[in-house]
Amino acid sequence: xxxxxxxxxLAQPGGSLRLSCAASGSSFSxxxxxxxxxxxxxxxxxxxxxxTGGNTNYVDSVRGRFTISRDxxxxxxxxxxxxLQPEDTAVYYCNAVLGLSVSWGRxxxxxxxx
Length: 114
Description:
Strands 2, 4, 5, 6, 9, 10 and 11 form a seven-stranded mixed beta sheet that branches. A hairpin with a 2-residue loop joins β9 and β10 (101-104). 32% of the residues are buried. The protein has no helices and eleven strands. The protein is globular and about 40 Å long. With 114 residues, the protein is mainly beta.
């Protein structure tokens, strides 16, 4: 599956952004979809995941502020990010996991700064 992330940009602390990841192919509805991020100078880290049944998981630092959702009819997964903080600054990547197959999209930059 090919993935294309969008929606990044510049936000002020306390602001919001909504990331989207569009997937091609017919396997989207059978894939676990996730968002990861790579802060400047750091390794890529897990942010959120949504299963095929809609169950969600979040890293502690974003729980209560970020919401992951999926639209199987549109082959799209979203990440609604509220109450953004400077430490949320990173390149955000979406991924799709189906069995042993893992696909990554190109990242989208999120910068939180006043």
